Amino acid sequence: IMSTIAAPLGLLDIFFVSSYWQPTTLFNIPIGIEGIIFSFEIGGIAAVAYAELTHRVPIKIKKHHKKFSLSLLLLLAPLITLLYLNKFPNIMLATYVGLIIGISCIVYIRKDLLDSALKGAITFGGIYFVCFVVLVAIFPGVSNWFTLQNLPRLYILNVPVYEVIFAILFAAYWGNLYEVLFQYKFRKLTSRS
């Protein structure tokens, strides 16, 4: 579900291409199928990585803020676009601010999700970083895709620091969105004797 919801975020490549990165795409078009597939993948992985690795299961809860929850989902892309168009030096910085606003809203309405937001962010950030290191090792030219306009060129093991920050913030936001939207809380699975 969260992969499918995340897939359209790939359309934000219209802003990312050239100001943040210039990837090789099928048919050399700025908004390629690759961005949509990438968004689909990270949306699903970020939503379940922490719960899966810590053996947590979803439990239905009573409290629900349906209108506010839906607005958290629907306003992310327009908010990032609006921030960027209002003279943010780079789309990635606008994305950070949009994600931080989203995280703050989630934690405000569901304080119980703060712990999983932090742990999920670190979990997915680590997975994302390791995958990126492997990608760059196999395809060294990937590092050259990043233009990083108006940003210092900061890398860790040939991975742009901005990608790691993005992964952490995205997971803190997206990793808890399912619980907020569908009235769930993840609890540790207890083993039966």
Work out the radius of gyration: 17 Å
Distance between the termini: 33 Å
- How are the strands of the largest sheet arranged? 1-4
What is the mean predicted local confidence, pLDDT? 86
Structural class: mainly alpha
Characterize the largest beta sheet: strand count, sense, and whether it forms a barrel: 2 strands, antiparallel
Q: Shape from CA axes?
A: globular
What's the gist of this structure?
By secondary structure, the protein is mainly alpha-helical. Helix content is 61%, strand content 7%.
How would you characterize the overall build of this protein?
The protein has 193 residues and is mainly α. The protein contains eight helices and four strands; from the N terminus they run H-H-H-E-H-H-H-H-E-E-H-E. The protein is 61% helix and 7% strand. A two-stranded antiparallel ribbon has the order 1-4. Helix 6 (91-109) runs parallel beside helix 8.
